[in-house]
Structure formats: structure tokens, C-alpha cells
Specification:
With 335 residues, the protein is of the alpha/beta class. The chain folds into two domains: 2-115 and 301-314, Nucleotidyltransferase, domain 5 (2-Layer Sandwich); 124-294, ATPase, nucleotide binding domain (Nucleotidyltransferase, domain 5, 2-Layer Sandwich). 43% of the residues lie in helices and 19% in strands. It has helices spanning 42-64, 83-100, 109-115, 117-120, 160-170, 177-185, 210-223, 225-230, 232-257, 273-285, 302-314; strands at 2-7, 12-19, 22-30, 73-79, 103-108, 128-133, 138-145, 148-154, 262-266, 289-291. The structure holds adenosine-5'-triphosphate and magnesium ion (MG).
Length: 335
């Protein structure tokens, strides 16, 4: 079975071709135009998707050696994401599916992040516990089966990726902040500043990162820009340590309490080197197996959308051409 994947939910235009469970090609075009604004400008993102989408599809087909007629289904992100950006991809996919008589498979982007794990770990079996950490989400999810999720905990304010991006903005490091903070932190001292770790009393599986960001902001205001610039590696390491410690603590405690032997990371922050190291070390102490996607499948990519589309196709969960984009789609309101 061959699936064409299309992802345009934010600032990455991505096209993939999947042949059964193998990724033949996964092209990701990141829109660097947003860097000058310090964040994603929605209208600009939509126009950039419009500009390159068709050429990227052609390039993906040529590189994979697959003809459009050989494709069984067109999988596309329908949400969550930026409305205009989603509409570009979804409208394109609808037109392509209609014109070629192929099956349309509308995919939940968050489910895509979770399914990315099956690209590298086909042996992974349900059920498992997932720590989903991305630009828009920080959730602890019990993945009972495909399409069957129980959300146990979530951030009550900023998502982990959002916190990394805001910290980078405070420190004038550029956008997206996560990879930059990760890199600078490698030569910094994680004990330079002890940033607050929030404990949410009514649900120990929830997270809160906004206080952490405010603590960094006030510290930089108090000490000044020159001081922050001089100590940026130590500040990145300390900030990262505070996020990673809370993420790892909450998810490991949940896994132990629920006697769950498999733990899976998903989303852009799953690329964080310190998170990958710490969660592996602690999980080992409890005899829990940890899985994470390879780096290219952590952040937004169409391979994970195609992989999810394959599961939808197998279950004959086809989409009609009247399906709409849903910017605030969640795992809970999807099915
Ligand atoms: N090495 C890293 N360390 C920490 N954060 C990272 C790293 N690499 C990427 N990120 C963060 O991951 C986020 C992007 O991830 P992703 O593409 O999954 O998010 P999104 O698609 O914007 O949000 P969502 O998937 O929730 O809709 C950004 O916030 C980025 O800073
Ligand atoms: Mg994403």
C-alpha cells in the first residue's frame, strides 16, 4: 500500500511517500522567512505553503520513483494548526484525491506525532504511555490502541516547546528556540540557577511552565542584557533542566503508578537531547522501555501523517471531500 502524506499545519511544508511501512521519501521545507519576526506569522505561512506545495509533491514523487497512479491514498493533516495553513494542505489534498480518484485520509496532527514512533519502531505494541511534548502540546496520554486515547495530564498554561521558544526570545537567541537552547545548554551549568519546578496539587500529572518563563524574564531584567549574554549557556542549561526534570518526573511516576512498561516520546521537544538522556536513564532504573522517534520524525513531518493515514486506510476510515479543517482539533474531540 502506498500513501502520499501532506503536512502544512504550521511553518513546515512537508510531503512524504510511504510504501507499506517504509518511508520512501520525507521532504520537509521549513519556512525560514518567519525568523525575522521571532515567531510564525499565520498569513505568511499560508502563502509560503501555497508557493511550494505543488512543486514539493512533484519532487517527492520523482525522488521516490512512484507515479501518482500507484498511490492508494492521500493523507493530509486536518488539525490542529493554523487555519489558513491547514486549508492550503487540505484543499490541495482534496483536489488531488478527487482528480485522481484516490482515497482521502484526513489525519489528526497530534495522533501523527504519536504514530511517528512506529516509523522507527515497527515492533512497538499497544498499550503504551506517551509523553507528547511539542510547540502546542504537553500531555501525558495513555495510548490504549490506535484512535483510543486517555489524556491523563496536560499543561495548564504554556506547552514545553512554547516555553523553550519564549526563553530563547528572552535571551535573544532566535527562533525556533528549542534546538538553540538544547545546543547552548550542552556547554552550560544546569545548576547555575535553580528555576522553579511547579507542582500541580489537584493533578500531579499536569504541568505548568509559565512561572518558569517569568522567573527567567525577571532574572534577565534584574541582572541586565550583558550579564544574560555572558551566561547564556548556563541559563539555557538551567532552564532546560527545570523543564526536563518536571516532564520526566511526572511521566515516570505515572508509568510506575499504572504499571506501564512502555514509554513513548512524541513531538518536537522529544528531539531534546537532555530529555532523551534523562528519561532513558530513569526509565532503566524502573525497568521501563523507552521509545522515541528519530530526530527527523520528532518535529513536523509528512511521514508521520502518511503513517497515520495507512492505519486509517486499513480500517477503512476514509474521509469525504466535505471534511473541514479544524484548528483546535484534539485527540478527544476528533472521533
Ligand atoms: N532539541 C529541542 N529541544 C527542545 N525543544 C525543541 C527541540 N527541537 C524542537 N523543539 C521545539 O519543538 C517545537 C516544535 O515542535 P512541533 O513541530 O511538534 O510543534 P508544533 O507542530 O508547532 O505544535 P503541535 O504539534 O503541538 O501542533 C518548537 O517549540 C521547538 O522549539
Ligand atoms: Mg507538530
Amino acid at each position: 500500500m502506498k500513501i502520499l502524506g501532506i503536512e502544512t499545519s504550521c511553518d513546515e511544508t512537508s510531503i512524504a511517500v510511504l510504501d507499506d511501512k517504509s518511508v520512501l521519501v520525507n521532504l520537509v521545507s521549513s519556512q525560514s522567512i518567519h525568523h525575522q519576526y521571532g515567531g510564525v506569522v499565520p498569513e505568511v505561512a499560508s502563502r509560503e505553503h501555497m508557493r511550494i506545495l505543488e512543486n514539493l509533491v512533484t519532487e517527492a514523487l520523482v525522488k521516490s520513483g512512484i507515479n501518482l497512479t500507484d498511490i492508494d491514498g492521500v493523507a493530509v493533516t486536518r488539525g490542529p494548526g493554523l487555519m489558513g495553513a491547514l486549508l492550503v494542505g487540505l484543499s490541495f489534498a482534496k483536489g488531488l484525491a478527487y482528480a485522481t480518484g484516490k482515497t482521502l485520509l484526513a489525519v489528526n496532527h497530534v495522533e501523527g506525532h504519536i504514530m511517528a514512533n512506529f516509523l522507527d519502531h515497527p515492533e512497538l505494541e499497544y498499550p503504551f504511555l506517551c509523553l507528547l511534548v511539542s510547540g502546542g502540546h504537553s500531555q501525558i496520554i495513555m495510548v490504549n490502541d490506535f484512535h483510543d486515547y486517555t489524556i491523563l495530564g496536560r499543561s495548564i498554561d504554556d506547552a514545553a516547546g512554547e516555553a523553550f521558544d519564549k526563553a530563547a526570545r528572552i535571551l535573544n537567541l532566535g527562533y525556533p528556540g528549542g534546538p538553540i537552547v538544547d545546543r547552548l545548554a550542552q556547554t552550560g551549568n544546569p545548576e547555575f540557577v535553580h528555576f522553579p519546578r511547579a507542582n500541580i496539587k489537584d493533578n500531579p500529572m499536569n504541568f505548568s511552565f509559565s512561572g518558569l518563563k517569568t522567573a527567567l524574564l525577571y532574572l534577565v531584567r534584574q541582572k541586565g542584557g550583558d550579564w544574560a549574554e555572558k551566561h547564556k549557556n548556563d541559563l539555557c542549561a538551567s532552564f532546560q533542566e527545570a523543564i526536563v526534570e518536571v516532564l520526566v518526573k511526572n511521566v515516570i511516576e505515572t508509568a510506575v503508578r499504572r504499571e506501564c512498561r512502555q514509554l513513548v516520546l512524541a513531538g518536537g521537544v522529544a528531539a531534546n537531547s537532555r530529555l532523551r538522556t534523562r528519561i532513558s536513564e530513569i526509565a532503566l532504573q524502573y525497568g521501563i522501555s523507552v521509545y522515541f522517534p528519530s530526530l527527523e520524525y520528532c518535529t513536523d513531518n509528512a511521514a508521520m501523517i502518511a503513517r497515520t493515514g495507512r492505519e486509517l486506510f486499513i480500517r477503512q476510515l476514509f474521509s469525504s471531500s466535505s471534511i473541514s479543517a479544524v484548528p483546535n482539533l484534539t485527540l478527544e474531540n476528533d472521533f
